Amino acid sequence: MHVNRREFLRKSICAALGGASLYSAIGSLKLIGAAAAAQRGFSDYKALVCVFMYGGNDSFNTIVPMSGTDLTNYLASRGDLAITTGQQALTPVAGGGPTNYGLHPAMPELAGLFNSGKAAIVANVGSLLYPTTQSDYQDGTVPTPAQLFSHDDQTNQWMTSRPDDANANGWGGRIADLLYASNTGQVPMSITVSGQNRFQRGGTVNQFSVNSWGASCAASGDPDCGPFSVTTMSYLGDGPESWLLPWQDQNVVADDMAAYNALIQSGTQAHVLERAFADSATRTIANSTLINTALNGVTLATAFPDTDLGNQLAAVAMLIKVRQALGMSRQIYFVAVGNYDTHGTQLVDQNDNLTELSQGLAAFYNATVELGIADGVTTFTASDFGRSLAVNADGTDHGWGGHHFVLGGGVRGQRFYGAMPSLAQYDDNNPNSNPDDTGYGQIIPKQAVDQYAATLASWFGVDASSVNDIFPNLGRFPSSDLGFMN
Amino acid sequence: MAIGSWMRRGLAAVVASLSIAASAQGLSHWPDAGFGDSFDGVSGGPASDNEAARFLAQATFGPSPNDIAHLRSVGYTGWLNEQFAAPVSTQTHYLDWFLVAFPDDYLSDDTRLEVWAINSVGTVDPSRPPPNNVATDQLRQRIAFALSEIFVVSNSNGTLAYEPWALASFYDMLAGDAFGNYRTLLEDVSKHPAMGIFLSSIQNQKADATQNIHPDENYAREVMQLFSIGLKQLNADGTPVLVGGQEVPTYDQTTVRGFAAVFTGWDWNNTGCGDTTYTCCMYNEDEGWGTYFWCGPSNYNDPPWMLPMEPVEHYHDNTSDKQLLVYPGVALPGGVLVHGGDAQTEMTHALDNIFNHPNVGPFIAMRLIERLVTSNPTPAYVQRVAQVFDNNGSGVRGDLKAVVKAILLDPEARYGQWQLPDTFGKLREPLLKITQMWRAMEARSTGGRIGTLAPWPPIEEQIGQAPQRSPTVFNFFKPDFEQPGEVEQRGLVSPEFQILTDTAVVATPNYFFHEVFCDYTGSTNCWASDDPTTMQMNEDRDAALAATDPAGLVDKYSALFMSGQMSPFMRDVLITRLNQLTEDNYGQDLGRTRVQHALYLILNSPEYSIQK
């Protein structure tokens, strides 16, 4: 059993803010309610879609130099692992960043979206407690996040933006706790198609998980494909094998439901874990019904690849299509793919990963155009960390800063935000050989997850004062808005 | 089905449930205290069938009536000694058999799940000749399963997805080491090629500055974080050490690099290599070339997939001093492993360095207690078990047999449900519900193979887990996962809830719906119900009882599935439901139908789902 690290009361008060200071301006129950109410009533629709790359995507082989000193440095650092042909050239607007970079050969679609202004690159982002220089790091004079380079911890820090609080809720969950009242429907504002995740863990709003298996097929409307719907319980009469129930017993479904519901009736159980289990079941059944009613017969003209990511994004697109039926004006989606932890066989594995990523993101963007909501949907990538500039023969190790993409009609695209770091090989005798390197091949981020997340939250509709409350460390960094949203 | 008619049934159900609630009103939702409370101590063995069933739910894959009777006759200690001595059941032999017996079938990772089920449920193994062809080592297999959720390898790795022998061999190693010493287990895990692949320590090479190569840190990090000491220093009772109110990390990045440099130079075992089989792993110093990166097995049943890795010294770092763990009493001065040792010597020192860290006892104690008994043990319970890890009573550190015994015979394991009635226990993992159901209902397949864990969609997509199929090295669920809501607010953990997604909330009951209503002895109800690899439950056994005495059936299943802990409220709901099923509608199928409804409602109920 965990020692109670926080008093119960303090946890309740802080719950809606995911650990915000007890002394913050809205650190009391009454004011939280007021703040939530104040956020009610958006007249437009917006969705944030997080695409999490589990394992730590190697940024330095995703966005690669094609000429100049950057290329020379890159070739020396990466050796046989360097990408030297087939790069997808990026052409930022004048003053919008370096002109000598391209995307990995597997990403023509995403390069096209960048070059047409629908995507932007946010460079060298990572988990930071304070702005940190190389000498800050090497001399230990500035606090750095705990457990850097550990998957689990860095994933949590990306998802919570709180390297100083290992128990914080996710920043997606904190946003949802503030804005859920803006939806008239009862279905949770946070939907995941990739299982439980910390990003969407809120104090009030529980993430609702949907299985996206077969979604891209279902979206196509091909009669050989099953429909996309949330599966329901066969025992209760409306599930995939309900035909097994003996229909000569006219009451079988009603009696089944009565017994099952009596057992899971919310809050009546005598044991805390039983109550949690019962609440899960009750909530799922209610929300599943609402979603399935809305999804009945829904298809998309846009084709989605039949990959893991393709299916997940197809599911999200169909759910966005029925946003009005569900009474949603603000939604947060979580999508995730794994296998990015390329300690070995990186050239092959990352090629597969980035093909899936580029094709999936492009299809999703096209679907939002089809739905007439491209300006309202912003997709952003995230990952445990970027990987080491140094290599370990056929792969790379855990790094720190990494590059990410933001995509959507509301993005101020065709630009780099933040400076691309030096790719020079670090020389132990000369730290200045790469001033961005920790000293071991890991690149120090120059932009914090807080800033990245706050920019998205502001666009999404969180007001300025609430942004500071849910990102309490934001003021340590030079700007609270990186400027990549219109 | 039209939504309208469904909603009408829904309304009828609401009315019906109100009437059920009314009739059950006033009935307690607590287990009846009259069942199974004993203060006689554990030395007298289980004092009732319920106590015996409860012990077996913790120590096996689920009790059957025979198991309960046997445990009562020999007592806890007698049972444990029998289990420690029982022959070890393994998996790789089954794959060997399958390859020859079914040359036209596709041997895949699904085949490995067949023998996992055979060994865990204890059905007749078709790959072994009688008489000794039924697994009797329930406790060992249960511990192996628990260990597989701590020392994680998985088919989620692109290579291992096609190497069932490697994964099966790893599980066999866990089973073989389950009652040995933790230090042995740690070395066997570190050297197993499945782990070498999963955490990329195989063919790891020493630093090469000219090529900007550093040793791979993956295994170095996870062997500490997940397999031995964790991220933060622990007191003997498992609570985190606090200095100035802050937790204290157990290691830093320098230590990770130190261990990474130790785990260099390990490559495939060379048994069976040669010109006609597969390339041997070697380096010729005189000629300056080797096969380190281009050697090893080709076919999935070649021995190197199953044998410990071996060093190729040329690629082992023997020039740098390595910073390892520092703690009171550490053998290496300052925790530093001075350079010069060969790969095995350095691995020995490094694993000793980990093994003797004071965290290991409470860390392993907490992990195993969570897998077997309860998600939230008291610190005192953890400490009692950690002390046994530190010293089994005969001066030996790391005695897993003693640790397992300490966990299961501790008063908190035996009586915790009375001491902490609101919080003791854990959410049963879906796989353990399935195996319990099969054991309790004498399930068999007509042909001996068990294909029921390989449905479509894959079982792990339905119920959230499958043996050695975790998506990452962090297992299906983290040991410190807290379900949002009351659990989290009270500072409790609930690891298994992490896979209780909305998808699983529906898919797991649907899996049980299929099993209960399709797959019983003699059934042809559904496609593949009578397939020779389908597990069929013996629903006839209790049919007569169900038809004539529904209350008796409910009580029998309360004892068998819930150790007698079914509340009067739940009992009433079930009896009411069974009485609604009438001979008019079901005729001679009445008995089996009542069995089916009782099973389904129990398996998916909150009270059963929480193992107490």
Task: Give a verbal description of the structure.
The complex is a heterodimer of chains A (486) and B (612). Chain A has 486 residues and is an alpha/beta fold. Chain A is built from 14 helices and 14 strands. The radius of gyration of chain A is 23 Å and the shape is globular. The radius of gyration of chain B is 26 Å and the shape is globular. Residues 1-8 of chain B have low confidence and may be disordered. Chain B has helices at residues 3-24, 49-59, 65-85, 92-101, 109-121, 138-148, 164-177, 182-191, 193-198, 218-225, 253-262, 343-355, 360-372, 379-390, 400-409, 411-419, 430-440, 459-463, 486-489, 502-518, 543-548, 550-562, 568-580, 583-586, 590-603, 606-609, and strands at 242-243, 246-247, 266-267, 283-284, 289-290, 310-311, 322-323, 336-337, 426-427, 610-611. By secondary structure, chain B is mainly alpha-helical. In chain B, strand 1 (242-243) and strand 2 (246-247) form a beta hairpin.
Brief account:
The complex is a heterodimer of chains A (486) and B (612). Chain A is an alpha/beta fold.
Topology:
The complex is a heterodimer of chains A (about 475) and B (about 600).
Chain A: H1 8-15, H2 29-38, E1 46-53, E2 63-65, H3 68-78, E3 88-89, E4 101-103, H4 108-115, E5 119-126, H5 134-139, H6 151-160, H7 171-179, E6 190-192, E7 208-209, H8 215-220, H9 252-264, H10 272-295, H11 308-321, E8 330-337, H12 346-370, E9 377-383, E10 387-391, E11 396-398, E12 402-407, E13 416-417, E14 447-448, H13 449-460, H14 464-470
Parallel strand pairs in A: 1-8, 1-9, 5-13, 5-14, 6-7, 6-8
Antiparallel strand pairs in A: 2-4, 3-4, 5-12, 9-12, 10-11
Helix pairs in contact in A: 4-12, 11-12
Chain B: H1 3-24, H2 49-59, H3 65-85, H4 92-101, H5 109-121, H6 138-148, H7 164-177, H8 182-191, H9 193-198, H10 218-225, E1 242-243, E2 246-247, H11 253-262, E3 266-267, E4 283-284, E5 289-290, E6 310-311, E7 322-323, E8 336-337, H12 343-355, H13 360-372, H14 379-390, H15 400-409, H16 411-419, E9 426-427, H17 430-440, H18 459-463, H19 486-489, H20 502-518, H21 543-548, H22 550-562, H23 568-580, H24 583-586, H25 590-603, H26 606-609, E10 610-611
Helix pairs in contact in B: 1-23, 2-3, 2-22, 5-7, 6-7, 7-8, 8-12, 10-11, 13-14, 13-15, 14-15, 20-25, 22-23, 22-25
